[in-house]
Specification:
This protein has 312 residues and is α/β, with parallel strands linked by helices. It has a single domain, classed as Alpha/Beta hydrolase fold, catalytic domain (Rossmann fold), CATH 3.40.50. The chain is built from eleven helices and nine strands. A nine-stranded mixed sheet has the order 1-9-8-7-6-4-5-3-2, sandwiched between helices. Helix 2 crosses helix 8 and helix 5 crosses helix 6. It is globular.
Length: 312
């Protein structure tokens, strides 16, 4: 059940399957190198990243629309019965430098199926092969296109990790420009401060199996491209109160073994102080973007809460 508190601990201990998943993650190849030097080595002279292909089975399960916007592929999944009352614009994670992962597609499919919504997924270009401005421009263009044919009040912005940053940054650009705002905002394990400045993050880092401070700061510096790390356009955590006050009802989901949990809590406080209807859902010992591991009890809870959020 939902609580009246702005922070709710939804899982006091990890499920057995979550423990198994963490065991596997700890012994597998890391998504990102665990040190700054390793990150720079991987990024230097790499081949152009390629998005994981959408499973062909989706064409039987959903109505699939594909188009090109600003030179990038954009995919929309509708329920088989037709477009949903809510339309989600979803940005995948990957530190702005990694493409759509294979695990992202089942997450998108589950949100369509469980929530009865349509979901649009921009397959945006990667930094450093493309500048951050190309990512922002695509997000703006896809939203404008979507809002032109769908009531903005029934659009929800969502994303995981760096994608959560992109969803939030888009909402803040809309607020600054006076464009029509989306009706709701959902953030899965969002990366809110590219510089990870809060010293409290250090205490969480040993428990995080995927993310390390040095690596992320190096990645964040690459994305910032010379801009100050506390510039709200770089790190939405630092957005001004008058900008935050314009945001729609917001829900955040983060695991307690995710170094982003610290900034999620800080951001929640800033949202509430600005008068935004905001809640943070935490999951004990859950790793980064745990909601993509769909069979777990924790991921099912996230999808259930998302469904309730859209039913309000």
């Amino acid at each position: 059940m939902l609580t009246d508190s702005s922070i709710a601990l939804r899982s006091a201990s990890p499920s057995l399957l979550m423990r198994v998943i963490k065991f596997v993650i700890a012994r597998g190849k890391p998504v990102f190198p665990h040190d700054e030097a390793g990150f720079h080595t991987v990024m230097t002279g790499r081949r152009l990243p390629v998005d994981a292909p959408m499973p062909e089975g989706f064409r039987k399960r959903f109505i699939v629309e594909e188009r090109e916007v600003l030179g990038s592929r954009v995919v929309t999944l509708h329920p088989k019965g037709g477009p949903g009352a809510w339309h989600m614009l979803y940005f995948h994670g990957g530190g702005f430098v990694q493409p759509m992962f294979k695990v992202h597609w089942p997450l998108v499919a589950e949100m369509v199926k469980a929530c009865g919504i349509s979901v649009t997924v921009p397959l945006y270009p990667m930094v450093p092969e493309a500048p951050y401005t190309a990512q922002d421009a695509l997000a703006d263009a896809v939203y404008a296109e979507l809002a032109a044919r769908h009531d903005p009040a029934r659009i929800i912005l969502n994303g995981d990790s760096a994608g959560g940053h992109m969803a939030l940054a888009l909402a803040l650009r809309l607020a600054r420009s006076g464009w029509a705002m989306p009706g709701k905002l959902a953030l899965f394990s969002p990366w809110l401060d590219l510089g990870l400045a809060d010293p409290a993050i250090v205490a969480v880092e040993p428990h995080d199996l995927m993310l390390k401070i040095g690596t992320l700061r190096a990645c964040g510096g690459l994305v910032a491209a010379g801009r100050a790390m506390d510039d709200p356009a770089v790190s939405p955590l630092y957005a001004a109160p008058d900008m935050l006050a314009q945001l729609p009802p917001t829900r955040i989901w983060t695991g307690r073994h995710d170094i982003f949990i610290i900034d999620s809590r800080s951001f929640l406080g800033r949202l509430r102080a600005a008068g935004v209807d905001a809640k943070l859902y935490e999951y004990e010992a859950a790793p980064h973007v745990f909601m993509a591991v769909l069979p777990t009890r924790e991921a099912k809870d996230v999808i259930g809460l998302l469904r309730e959020f859209l039913a309000d």
